[in-house]
Amino acid sequence: MRFSHILSLLALGLVIGCSGGDSSSSSTASKDAGSGSDFKVALLTPGPVSDSGWNALAYDGLQAIKSEQGAEVNNQEATGDQIKDAMRTYAQQNYNLVIGHGYEYNAVEAEVAKDFPNTVFVSSSGGLSGANYGAFRFYLEQGFYLAGMMAAGMSKTGVVATVGLDVPSIVSTFKGFEAGARAVNPNIKIVSKMVSLPGNDPAEYKKATLAAIAEKADFIIHQANQGAQAVFNAAKEKGAYVFGSNADQNSNESGVVIGSAVIVAKPAFLELAKEVKEKTYKGGIQLIGMDKGAIDFVINPDMTKLVPSELIAKIEQAKADIKLGKLTVPKDDF
Length: 334
What we know:
The chain is an alpha/beta fold. 37% of the residues lie in helices and 21% in strands. The strands form 2 sheets. A 7-stranded mixed sheet has the order 1-3-2-4-5-6-12, with helices on both faces. A 6-stranded mixed sheet has the order 8-7-9-10-11-13, sandwiched between helices.
């Protein structure tokens, strides 16, 4: 999800993400300061950094900035009305860089940035930018496209599903999944089960997953952040397979994750921080994908034997074509 879009890279997703936004007002903060550093970086996330997914990958990027660039770092959950206050507080404390990990941070940073020209604000997704703010977007749709190919190529029922938070960056990744599925089977049925904001209740994701399975979906891809485990548990109950997202979730104890569409965020975070530290950052929107090593699709090595070899070959060829620019995966602009 941004020096244009490593920041595109950073973004993605999102992502929000890949990330989904939570409009509730719950916030936690954690400071992990480098000793005496004059370079300060803060991270805002829409959920806990222990989610083994969207928020965790951003926290890993923040820790890389600390360890490899000697930054003083701070992170907190900030959603809804908390976002503006958190951004302003960090800027008043002379933080050099404030990263909002999700689409929902972009509009707020555009408002706050004008009052703090010495602080750079970057969101991982979004379409607004200025002199000291912007976004990087991870082209996660590419990984979702390959997951869609695999889902359609393996489905026994002819029905696959998407389960996630109803925000623009997530909807876009699901369009990538649909395109990949239809590339393998034009007649595949795709069931969409979206959870409305704030979307922070795992029970909602379990309910959505069970509803998709009730409509005969046997392969599901999620964008559920902290609700991911609820998706996995529901699939295990009913004998369905799930694709992990954002992070490599193949080793989840549920045993139902057959592959993962992965964001490799660390290089993007480090590049962004380097530009800010060296004062070379230029606001913009940057898209980062497989050609930069920021996106991948990883089949669960413990389940490879379940995947037809000819399907694996098709997926690998599509991955190579994406990296070379021969195959363009659809995405929304927002």
